[in-house]
Amino acid sequence: MKEITLENFRCFHTKQSAHLAPLTLLVGENSTGKTSFLAAIRVLWDCIYGQRNPNFRASPFDLGDFDEVSHRRSERSRSAPEFEIRGQIDQEGHARVVFKKEGRNPVPAKIRFTENDNWIEDSRESETNHWMRVGTRRGAWEVSLSTIFQGRAMPLIDSRQFISAILLGRLSNESEDGTMPVPLNGAPAFSKEDLDSIRNIRLMDHLPAGNQPYANAPARSNPRRTYDPASLGPDPKGEHVPSLLANLAVEAPDVWTSLKQRLEKFGSSAGIFDEIDIKRLAKPGGDLFQIQIRKSGKRLKGTKHKLMDVGYGISQILPILTELMLIETPRMALLQQPEMHLHPMVQATFGSLLCEIAGQGRQLIVETHSDHLMDRVRMDVRDRKTSLKPEDVIILFFDRNDLGAQIHPIRLDEQGNYCGTPRGYRKFFMEETRRSLGLF
After folding, report:
1. How is the chain split into domains, by residue range?
2. DSSP H or E segment with residue 162
3. Distances (CA, A) of 352 to 22, 136, 322
4. How far apart are CA 64 and CA 80, in angstroms?
């Protein structure tokens, strides 16, 4: 995803656009919109590639009902009647989603996919007033879906499958049942050339299941002395990760060996552990197991300790490390404060890992309050530690603006210096430094 635009979405009242890079870092004070920004990205992804209305209360982003999502200027004022999320997916592809209130929930009232001069729009003004509009360089046309479905309520797109399987199939035949597109604004009759242009919009391609962006919760699961290998689905808090590791060790030993090596490389670089192992407390296939950690000394390996006995930080970073290091994982990750409970050296090492992962073709969008993580990213980019270039990193600074929030983009130069910082950036830190030097 190259860019996202928000309007009337939570604290973003006026239309604001922000570019996204392979590695995008979200910084700023608490309650300035960083988590809402991450949630908006996942909502947009669901609208483009999902097969259902997006769930605004899905963990780890519980945004509430429509009146809590749509911007409201004051306690006495009403929420805006609609809000909008737009995205630039690649150089030519764009998506626009307008949400309105249905019951208490926000639902897509309009979705438009655009690529170059071609676009297709699903617009539902009410349950029984539903239109599909299309456009090419030759003009624009519309079809009443209410006619096709004889007044029955039709859910908003699942439309990519609907378009290709039903609508475009009908449009390719000169039927007389009202499904042929009606020209708008003096457009010529809809042709096979127009049909082919609409069919080629790549945003209508279906992604395989399981590609929803990985999103972590800011506080992860608590460590345990023993674990049960019961199969658990992906969980933002990482509750499933211990069972995932144990199952890999038995069912996919090659994958486990590769992952174990990467985890141990990170642990050793960060100075928190040199070995990680799965210890079963019964014969293979038994019920209980432990995750054991060992930190070696200069001459002796030392003893292995249960995950619960080696400090809280390792258990908090392990779920994120696992999700980032597994090969078959979503290409986009939305990370909330991965540095929680970590020593500054571990935070810095994690910054290097972000550069490495983003340099391998993944897109990482990271909310952070860690100067150590930020500084390591700057230095690794400057020193060419990975393939990540200065233009592959964007820092988005979130600042309060009256009753809303403002996003300021900051870039890195070849020396790893910040470029284009706004006046309020790091004001608190500069004041603290002056005070510590006795300059007040």
Report:
1. 3-15+43-204, 219-329
2. helix 159-162
3. 14, 45, 16
4. 15
As beta bridge partners, residue 26 has 367, 396
The predicted model scores a pTM of 0.90
Q: Which tokens sit at 192?
A: 């096979």
Can you tell me the distance from the alpha carbon of 31 to that of 401, in angstroms, rounded to the nearest whole number? 12
Alpha helices, H only, 165-252: 168-171, 192-199, 241-251
The residue among 146, 138, 88 whose CA lies nearest residue 112 is 88
- Of 19, 23, 157, the closest CA to residue 88 belongs to 19
| Cβ(103)–Cβ(65) below 8 Å | no
Cβ-based neighbours of 146, under 8 Å, separated by 6 or more: 128, 129, 130, 131, 154
3-state helix, strand, coil in the chain (%, to 5): 30, 25, 40
Radius of gyration (C-alpha) of the chain in whole angstroms: 25
The Cα angle at residue 393 between residues 259 and 54, in degrees rounded to 5: 75
Rounded Cα gap, residues 431 and 424, in angstroms = 11
Collapse the DSSP code of 408 into the 3-class scheme (helix H, G, I; strand E, B; otherwise coil) and give the result: strand
Which among 341, 349, 269 is positioned nearest to 311, based on CA atoms?
341
Question: Closest by alpha carbon to 132, among 173, 92, 166?
Answer: 166
DSSP assignment string, 136-158: ETTEEEEEEHHHHTTT----S--
Q: What are the pLDDT tens digits along the chain (440 aa)? A: 999 999 999 999 989 999 999 999 999 999 899 999 999 999 999 888 765 678 899 899 999 999 999 998 777 778 899 999 999 988 888 999 999 998 899 988 898 989 989 998 888 877 667 788 889 999 998 887 766 555 444 555 444 555 554 455 555 554 444 467 889 999 998 888 888 888 788 765 544 445 789 999 998 888 888 888 775 677 889 999 999 999 999 999 999 999 999 999 999 999 999 999 999 887 655 678 999 999 887 777 889 999 999 888 999 999 999 999 987 778 899 999 999 999 999 999 999 999 999 999 999 999 999 999 999 999 999 999 999 999 999 999 999 887 788 999 999 999 999 999 888 787 777 777 777 778 76
d(CA 108, CA 85): 10
